[in-house]
Structures are given as C-alpha cells and as structure tokens.
Amino acid sequence: MFESSSRFIEKFLSEIDKYPDIIYFHDPNIHYLKKIRKALPFIQTKYVFFCAEDDFIVPSAIKKITEFLDEHNDYCSAQGHFLTFEVRRKNIEFTPRYIRNFDKHINAATAAERLIEFQNPYTSLLYSVIYSNVFKEMYTNCFDNQDRLLFTNLFTAETYFNYYALIQGKHATLPYFYAARERIAGSATTTTAPFTDIMTKGKYHDERESLLQILANKLSLQDGIPQSEAYEMILKLLKEPYTNKIISKSVS
User: Fold this and answer.
1) CATH code at 193?
2) Which residues of 65-75 are buried (b: 16+ CB within 10 A; e: fewer)?
3) How many domains does the chain have?
C-alpha cells in the first residue's frame, strides 16, 4: 500500500464514527479477489461499483447511470468519462482517459456478438456500475468447490470482469464526467505479468484454463451454444483480440 493511501486510511479510521453506514475491512495480506468475496454478503443495493481509495467518483454521475440502467434492463453495466491525475511538484496534471470509448455502446443482441464488438477498440468495464447480483455471481465463480482461488493475475481478473459482464448484458459509456483516477508510478498494474504472458506461457496454463472454462460455461448458458464452441470462441478472442474477421463469420 502506498504512503498516500496509508495516510488516507489513518485519517479515515480516526473519523470512522462519523460514517455509521460504512463497514470497513483492512486485509493487506490477502489477495484482492478474496477481499471482494469477503464483502459480497454485505452488498444490499441493486447496483455496485469499484472505487479505489485514491480515486474520486462523481455522485451525480452515479445517479444518472443507475437511472439509465433502470430504464434499459437489457444493459448490465454502464460508466461515464474518466480523467486521470498525477501530482507533479506543486501542480496536478489531468489527462482524459479512454477517449476512444466516449459515448460507446456495446449493444449487440447476443453475448458472442457483444464480445466481438468489445474488442475494437478495447474498453475496460472494471469500474462500471453493474448489477449487484451479477457482481456477486462472477466473484463467487472465481473459486473452486474447495474454496481455492482460480486465478490471481490482475489483468486476468480485469479481463474476467469485462467478459463476464458483457456475456450477461449490454454496456454503455454515457456522456457524464464519472471519475478521476490517480496515476501512481510503481502501481500493481505496472509490476504484474502482462496478459499476453498469461495467454501464451506454459507456467500460466492453469490460470488460463480456469479463465477460459468459467467464461465458456457462462457464454454457453447465455447464448445456448455448445460449451466446446463457446470455449473456442473465448480462446480466439483472448489470443487475437484485434483480429476478429474469422470469428465474426462463425457467429453471424
């Protein structure tokens, strides 16, 4: 945990009595997917979203997004526009993020078509507002029947979220300022193995297979296609994320 985060948490804990509706867990030595699972029984709202302690979410945008989801029940998730910020000496530098995805809808009729639509250009859904029941289901499925975590890589976990949410339903990026996220040198995403390694190197075989099997099972059930066909499609998309012409023909 970074010093800025530690200072924030210390200040927050000193004032915790001011926030009776907040349940705070601090488990620095366990994997973050296990932390999420620990929190699942406490989620009682219709929707849920991630917000890191050094990020800022705009409440008015959350309201607009939940209203959109209420009115469009074929959508599973939605988000708005992001800025990243970085402290440089005495100044703060802001940069728009995910510009290619401004106001983008991934709204094909079938889950298979949505996964293809998602790839070009890539869109991260990880910080979207999403239905709580889908969120709970996806993070419960990260564990096997012996309570073992099936994958641990951060990029694998993000890919899992993206695919699982899109298999379940449509996604929208709406025209609202949604969040500001801090860019931190040396963050976990700059030190973890890249997803290309997960998909190509033998030492990640078990992690890769776990991801493929969970997503293939979900896609098979959602679109009513054989599990083997769903598996092959997920595999092709993950290995060749920007060359979808061959795959498109198989689901058209």
Assistant:
1) 3.90.550
2) bbeebeeeeeb
3) 1
DSSP 8-state symbol, 143: B
Residue whose C-alpha is closest to residue 164's, from 133, 138, 200, 202: 138
Domain range for residue 64? 3-243
Q: Is residue 249 part of a domain?
A: no
Quote the CA–CA distance of 68 and 71 in Å, as a whole number. 5
> Does residue 169 fall inside a structural domain?
yes
Q: Exposed (0-12), middle (13-18) or buried (19+): which is 93, by Cβ within 10 Å?
A: exposed
* Domain presence at residue 252: no
Report the C-alpha gap between 11 and 13 in whole angstroms: 6
User: Is residue 81 very low, low, confident or very high in pLDDT (cuts 50, 70, 90)?
Assistant: very high
Contact 235, 212 (CB under 8 A): yes
- Is 248 inside a domain boundary? no
Strand stretches in the chain, DSSP E: 47-48, 55-57, 75-88, 91-97, 105-106, 129-131, 170-182
Cα dihedral: 92, 98, 99, 105 (round 10): -140
Give per-residue pLDDT as tens, 20-59.
Answer: 888 888 787 889 899 999 999 999 999 999 988 778 899 9
